[in-house]
Amino acid sequence: MIDNNTMARLMPVILLTLGATGLAQASTLEDVRDQGHVRCGVNAAQPGFSALDDEDNYRGLDTDVCRAIAAAVLGDAESVRYVPLDSVERFTAIQSGEVDVLSRTTTWTSSRDTSMGVNFTGVSYYDGQAFMVASDLGVNSALELDGADVCTQSGTTSELNLADFFRVNDMSYNPIVFDSPEQAIAGFEAGRCDVLSSDASQLYSQRMQLPDPDSAVVLADIISKEPLGPAVRQGDDQWFNIVKWSLFAMINAEEMGITQANVEEMLDSEDPDIARLLGRDGNYGEGMGLEADWAYQIISQVGNYGEMFDRTVGDGSEFKIARGLNALWTEGGILYAPPIR
Amino acid sequence: MTIQEKMLEARPAPKSTVGPVAWLRANLFSGPVNTVFTLLGLYLLYLLLTPTIQWAFINADWIGTSRDDCSREGACWVFVNARLGQFIYGLYPGSEIWRVNLTFATFAGLIAWLAIPRLPYKRWVAVATLVGFPVLAYFLLYGGHFGLRVVETHRWGGLMLTLVLAVVGMVGALPIGIMLALGRRSQMPIVKSFCVVFIEFWRGVPLITVLFMASVMLPLFMPTGVSVDRLIRAFIGITLFQSAYMAEVIRGGLQAIPRGQEEAAAALGMGYWKRMGLIVLPQALKMMIPGIVNTFISLFKDTTLVMIIGLFDLLGIVQAALSDSRWLGFALEGYVFAAFVFWVFCFSMSRYSQYLERKLHTGHKR
C-alpha cells in the first residue's frame, strides 16, 4: 500500500516548508453540518475497498467507513461526497481541507502519523503482505516456497518485505518484477512465476481476475504489517474523536451482537452496555457534539463491523477474504474497541 | 490495298494492364522479391488477425447482464454494455442525462451548420457557437437556473467530461494562442517579453506537472476552506498549457506569410488590427490547419491525464469500472473500448481537417 516514489518521500518536507501543519481550523464538525455532507477522500479504484458499481455508487470497506461517519454526524449515511484521490495527493487533500476524512487504504506508519500533518484514528482493516500460489502446487505454507519464482510489483514495499522474508528464513527466490497489478496477475496466469506476492487485500482481488479463481489459493502467512485506517487533519480533536469512535461503535456493535436487522429490538435491551451504545442510557454523543443516537444511526444504516466486512470483502462478497486478524478479539482476531461508557 | 474507311472500334486495354489483376501484378507481385514479401505479409496478417477477430467477434459474448454471462473464451462486451451509460455520462444523474444529450446535439448541429457549405448565415452561427454556446452549455450542464437542478462537477465524467475538457481547451486556447503569437512578433518590448516568457514557461513543463501542481500544490497556497473546483483547475491548466503550443503553431503560420503582404497593407493605410485581421491571419490560418488540428488531436488525447487529479474522463471511468468486484478481469475489453472511442473522434477530426484544407485551397500550396 505504500507507493515508494520520490514525491511521497518529499511530501513531508513540502508540507513542513509551507508551514501547513497546525493550521488554525474552524471546527470540522460545524463545516460538515453546514455543507450537509462529509467529504471523504477515497481510492478511485480499489476492489473491495472503494469501487464504482454499475449504479454509480461507490462500494467497499473504505467507503462504508465514510458512510458510518456521515450517519453518526448527519444522521444520513448517504450524505457523503466521495473525492477520488491519488496516492500522492491524498495527504495534501486532507491537509488543505479539501476532504474531511481520508479513508483510502492508507497504511498507518509512524512517519505518516508524525510528519504528514494527519492523525490516524484507528485500524479499519489489518492488511499484510501474503502469497498466492496455484492450488495444484500443493503448497500450504510460505516456508515451503524455497527456490520459487515470485512475481511482485515494483515501487512498493512488497519487494523489500519479500527480500527480508526470504533472507530471514534462509531461503532463495527469484523475483520477477512487474509495473502494475494487472501485469503481475497476467504474468502469474501465464506461468511466469509460481507465486504472486502483494498485500493480501490486493491478492484476493487479483485472484478474482483469473479465468478460474479457484485455480489459486492465498496462503495464510502474512509477512508484513499493513494496518489500514482512516485519517483526519491534525488540530481538531473533536473531529478526530468522532471518526475514531464511529469505527469503535461498529466494532463494539459486532461484539454485542447488534446488527442492522436487530437494532430496533436491541433498543429495548436490558443490557446496560447496549443501552449506552444505542443512546438509551446517558448521552455519550454529547462529548463529541453529536446526538445521543449517533451509534444507533451507524448500525441501522451501515451495520456493524462484521456486516460491513462480509458485504465488502468477506463471505458476502466475491473475494471471500477470511476474517483472520480482522476477527474480534473474542474470536481469535485482534479487533478490540474500548468500551462506550 | 484496302482502305480503312471507318475508324476501328476502341478495344479494351489488355487484361494484363487494367483491373484488379493488373493492379496486383504491378503493386504486389512485380518481381520475385516483392512476391515473397507480399506472401510473407499476408501470412503475418493472417497470424495477427485470426486470433483478434476470434477474440473480438466470433468467441465474444454480447448479451447478458453479469459476468456469468461471459464464457471467457473471447471478449466480454457485456461488461462494456452494462457500463455504457457510465462510460458516456460518468456519474451524471440518470434523470438529467437529457441535458447532456441536448448540449452535445446542439454542438453537433452548430458544427454541422458551419461545416456544410450550402447553409446560410455562417457568420451568425459562428458567433453563436463561440459565444452563445458556451453560455448555454454552462446552464444546461451545470444547471442552477431556469428550474434545472445543479449537477456538481464531481458527478461529471466519462466521454462527456472528455469532450467538455477538449472543447473548452480548444475554444479557450485558440484566441489566447493567436494573441500570444501576435504578441511574440510585436515590436513592443513589454508585450513581447511577456509573451515569450509565458510561452516558454508553459511549453517547458509537461501537462502532467501542470495538473499535478494545480491539484497538489495549489490547495496548499490557498487559505483553508477556500477551494477551487477541480474541474475549473483542470480547465485553467489545460487552456494555458495548450495556448502556448497553439501560439507557436500560429507563429509558424505567420512567418510563412511574405513580409510584402503586410507592407502592402500598410501602404494602403491599414492599421495594425486591420492588417492582421484582413490580410495576414486569413492567409496564415489556412496554412496552419494541419498544425492546429494536430494540436487539437493531441489535446483531445491529453485530457486523459486529468485522471491523476481525480476526475473521471473516459479512460478514468473505464479504469474505475475495472475495479468493481462484480466485473474484475475485463481490463482488455475496457481499454479496447476506450481506444476505439478515442480513435473514432481523432480520426474524424483528422478527416475534417483534410476536407477543410481542400475547401480553402486557393493555390497557396506548392
From TrEMBL, chain A:
Family recorded in the similarity comment: Belongs to the bacterial solute-binding protein 3 family.
Gene3D superfamilies for the chain: Periplasmic binding protein-like II
Solute-binding protein family 3/N-terminal domain: residues covered: 37-266
Name of this chain's protein: Amino acid ABC transporter substrate-binding protein
Keyword Signal: yes
Domain of life: Bacteria
Organismal lineage: Bacteria, Pseudomonadati, Pseudomonadota, Gammaproteobacteria, Oceanospirillales
Residues spanning the signal sequence: 1-26
A GO biological-process term: amino acid transport
Keywords: Signal, Transport
rRNA processing among keywords: no
SUPFAM superfamilies tied to this protein: Periplasmic binding protein-like II
Organism: Billgrantia montanilacus
Pfam families: SBP_bac_3
Automatic annotation (TrEMBL), chain B:
UniProt domain ABC transmembrane type-1: residue ranges: 159-353
An MF annotation (GO) of this entry: transmembrane transporter activity
TM helices/strands, residue ranges: 33-53, 98-116, 123-144, 156-182, 194-221, 276-297, 304-322, 328-349
Main location: membrane
Gene Ontology cellular-component annotations: ATP-binding cassette (ABC) transporter complex
Intracellular or extracellular location(s): Cell inner membrane; Cell membrane
Membrane topology type: Multi-pass membrane protein
GO terms classed as biological process: amino acid transport
Keywords: Amino-acid transport, Cell membrane, Membrane, Transmembrane, Transmembrane helix, Transport
InterPro entries (UniProt xref): AA_ABC_transptr_permease_3TM, ArtM/GltK/GlnP/TcyL/YhdX-like, MetI-like, MetI-like_sf
Domain of life: Bacteria
PANTHER family: INNER MEMBRANE AMINO-ACID ABC TRANSPORTER PERMEASE PROTEIN YHDY, MEMBRANE COMPONENT OF AMINO ACID ABC TRANSPORTER
NCBIfam families assigned: HEQRo_perm_3TM
Protein family per UniProt: Belongs to the binding-protein-dependent transport system permease family. HisMQ subfamily.
Protein name per UniProt: Amino acid ABC transporter permease
